[in-house]
TrEMBL record:
Chain segments annotated as transmembrane: 40-63, 102-121, 142-169, 181-203, 210-228, 256-278, 315-335, 365-386, 411-438, 450-474, 481-499, 527-545
UniProt superkingdom: Bacteria
Species: Myceligenerans indicum
Keyword set, alphabetical order: Membrane, Transmembrane, Transmembrane helix
Record-given protein name: ABC transporter permease
Length: 553
């Protein structure tokens, strides 16, 4: 006999309590830690190693070299690449680590945090694995909470180990409070960007969309901090709108203050609340900003692998190019001010003349800014170069290759579209500098001069794509190692002078090494050589892709 009489209404549905939405969180935390144990180890090892290395290397420079380094950090380019410049009057190794390192530690851990949050939330839903997990007794919010908890644990471990490392190898001026201030400030600032990634994971329907938007916010934070610090000594009001500044304004090893970390803590709490509200209002597997429904049949222009690759990559290229163009347009408008600042620095301290030369020439500043820009483009090339791997993992590559499409056409289409995107991502921001400079009457160089600068950077940027393509073609599981070339180029390019007895050959595998100075005529042989290397790596990846199984197991 039925327990419910006909016509008496539907059975009562039990409404889960708040606690049930977190069921299984502990098991998911253990699962994430086990699944990411190698990734967590290498992130932790790398950050702790760089803290230790910079402290040791800066200490080995000696007092005279540190004075010269302090002079560089007073310049606009030093402020952009480092920070507001606290403690430059008595520059010590620990102050140098804080002044020059905080920006880059926040940037690195910010990238890690965004990737971590999106990988274990939106990407899991997109792949369908999260649906299988939730078929078990797992609450609605458990995956997100487990991702947040594991990110807190990772950042906390990195902060504690880094602080203990600084204390262990530092001198008498490296105090317990200052060491934990610098590492905890960095950890909290990076957590802010991780929670931004979680918010975007609720809005978008794809993992790459959430990652892309999170990286845009990370880059915007860098730019806001840089512009604000250049505008006023010690940082302006604009600087305080960036999480980068919240870590720097704690002033470790100079005049320690703790309250700026509360800005990071408050932002984390607000972003958690926003992500929770958004997550409760969306359908599982969907986003609050759903994909636009397209036509039932494709037009003739979309029936081909190149059109498909373009459709998959166009949004990322648009966002990256627009962001870079806006950022470098602002740099161009700042060139007259930067030239005046360099001139006044030379007047107040003649030693600057040996470093910067012409008082009104901002080429040194432009060189560092454009180096930073090419590194960002290199990151874009690596992400888009790994796009075929995402298609293979999702099973879409097999479907495409089941059609009358050869492997060469399919893979070559992705390489071609990404290569064109890299060229655009290099050219547009550099030409935006020219537009900004002309707009404020600073027309010392012509359009052709800036176009030549863009052309000299293109082969080096394409090397990052070629290296990623070669890894994917032959060793698809190792595609992520493409980031090693970018990290190597960054470390050698910005901190190579700190490495004692660095052999010249160590620079040869750094693509940026072969780029001449800004507005200098490139060596045609070197330019062609780098271009051939980039093309050869792409061809090598194509050969490997044609020879191996799909999907790779």
């Amino acid at each position: 006999m039925s327990a419910v009489a006909p016509g008496r209404g539907a059975p009562t549905v039990a409404v889960p309590s708040f606690g049930s939405t977190l069921e299984g969180t502990g098991r998911l935390i253990r699962f994430i830690l086990r699944r990411d144990r190698a990734r967590i180890f290498w992130w932790t090892f790398s950050i702790v190693f760089f803290y230790a290395y910079f402290m040791v290397a800066l200490d080995a420079l000696g007092a005279e070299a540190l004075v010269g380094r302090a002079l560089l950090m007073e310049s606009p380019s030093g402020i952009v690449m480092g920070g507001p410049g606290y403690g430059l009057d008595a520059y010590t190794p620990e102050r140098a680590v804080a002044n020059e390192g905080i920006t880059w530690f926040v940037l690195a851990l910010g990238v890690m945090s965004v990737l971590h949050m999106v990988r274990h939330t939106r990407s899991e839903e997109e792949s369908g694995r999260s649906e299988l997990v939730r078929a078990n007794p797992v609450g609605r919010h458990a995956p997100a909470v487990a991702s947040v908890v594991t990110l807190v644990l990772v950042n906390a471990v990195i902060a504690v180990l880094s602080a203990m490392t600084l204390i262990g190898i530092g001198g008498e001026y490296v105090t317990f409070a200052d060491s934990f201030a610098i590492t905890s400030g960095v950890a909290c600032a990076s957590m802010v960007f991780g929670l931004v990634g979680l918010v975007f994971a609720q809005l978008t329907v794809s993992g790459r969309g959430a990652v892309g938007l999170g990286m845009v916010v990370l880059g915007l934070g860098f730019v806001v901090r840089a512009v604000g610090d250049v505008a006023e000594t010690g940082g302006s009001t604009l600087s305080w709108f960036s999480p980068f500044a919240w870590a720097q304004q704690m002033r470790p090893f100079v005049d320690l203050i703790w309250w700026p970390i509360l800005l990071s803590a408050g932002s984390i709490a607000i972003l958690l609340l926003v992500a929770s509200v958004l997550g409760s209002r969306r359908d599982f597997g969907g986003g609050l900003l759903p994909d636009r429904i397209g036509p039932a049949t494709a037009t003739a222009s979309l029936r081909g692998p190149i059109a498909l690759a373009w459709r998959q990559q166009r949004f990322a290229l648009l966002v990256v190019t627009a962001f870079f163009a806006a950022m470098w347009l602002g740099v161009g408008t700042m060139l007259p001010t930067i030239g005046e600042m360099v001139g006044s620095l030379i007047e107040s301290n003649p030693q600057f003349g040996a470093v910067f030369g012409d008082p009104g020439d901002p080429s040194g500043f432009l060189g560092l800014v454009m180096l930073e820009g090419v590194l960002f483009v290199g990151a874009y090339a690596i992400v888009m170069g790994a796009r075929p791997k995402a298609e293979e993992n999702a099973g879409r590559a097999e479907i495409a290759l089941a059609r009358p499409v050869s492997r060469t056409r399919w893979f070559g289409a992705h390489i071609l579209v990404t290569g064109i995107g890299v060229v655009i991502a290099v050219a547009v921001p550099i030409l935006a500098v020219w537009v900004g400079a002309v707009a404020v009457g600073f027309d010392r160089q012509s359009f052709g001069d800036y176009a030549l600068v863009a052309a000299t950077y293109v082969p080096s940027a394409l090397c990052y794509l070629g290296f990623t393509v070669a890894l994917y073609g032959w060793f698809p599981r190792a595609t992520g190692l493409g980031w090693l070339l970018l990290v190597y180029g960054f470390v050698i390019g910005l901190f190579g002078s700190l490495i004692q007895d660095l052999p010249e050959a160590a620079n040869y595998i750094n693509p940026i090494y072969w780029v001449p100075g800004v507005f200098e005529t490139p060596d045609l042989g070197e330019w062609l050589g780098v271009a051939v290397v980039a093309l050869g790596l792409c061809v090598l990846g194509m050969i490997g892709f044609r020879r191996r199984d799909i999907p790779a197991v």
